[in-house]
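Lecture 7 notes: from sequence to structure.

We start with a single chain of 300 residues. Read the sequence below before looking at the structure.
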Amino acid sequence: MKTDLGDLDAFVAVARAGGFREAARVEGVSASSLSEAVRRLEQQLGLRLLNRTTRSVRATEAGQGLLDRLEPALGEVRAALDIVDGYRDRPAGTLRLNVPVAAVRLVLPAIVPGFLATYPEIRLEITAEDSFVDLIAAGCDAGIRYDERLEQDMIAVPIGPRVQRFAVAAAPSYLDRRGRPSHPRDLLGHDCLRFRFSSGARHPWEFQRGDEVVHVDPPGPFEIRPAGEIGLAIDIALGGVGIVAAFETWLRPHLDAGTLEPVLEDWWLSFTGPFLYFPGRRLVPPPLRAFVDYIKSRPA
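Now the structure, written as tokens:
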């Protein structure tokens, strides 16, 4: 039997108030609407729940039995709804993000501590992987990817640095021994330290100078998977084994220290930074809405 919760609420209000007019005053509704709700409930149950006279309204035996069970149950329902309201007004709950390994290291360290301090009742779960996933099927609220890998129907919000560069470098000892490339195609004759994505794809290195764009797929003695573990390749480059390509942010401390030397710097490719993306829908979960608002409030 399917019973309208509003009809049950109306019955409890009238029985508690001892009359339709008093219940209507307390609830802020019309006495006629309460009367209709109780009549509908009685008709559905096939039982009289309230004895009505011109002076008073009293619960029947069946009505009193229902009232005794309903009041605590409806109290639990209201408490549950209050909790849901709290999620809207005070963000709480779990936020699940799917993030490339590189973005975990390059983007999130500057965001996560402040976000969790601002919203202590939100629990953040990160799945780090390089393959593109179906967010809904993976049970994630949002993901981080670059614009060329975003689906058309997703909402995308900039997150992290707005411009990044793909840098190439090697230890001075390697370049002294093997020579310094002057064009990207010269890399085909060098030992290059490569990486593959989790899917198995190994993307060519891309370079651009002015209007000229060059893709090369150089050989090398070392390869690592997934791409986010490029830190090991950098360590090997520091040992003079070969040339490494990675986000400039990762190489910059070694470039500034002189332990790595820029290679083909005037060819380094610039590209748009990552985006937080999530399905377009009217009601965004409160933890995700809080995260979006937080990253929007940060300086660009």
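The first strand starts at residue 50 and ends at 52. Keep this in mind for problem set 3.
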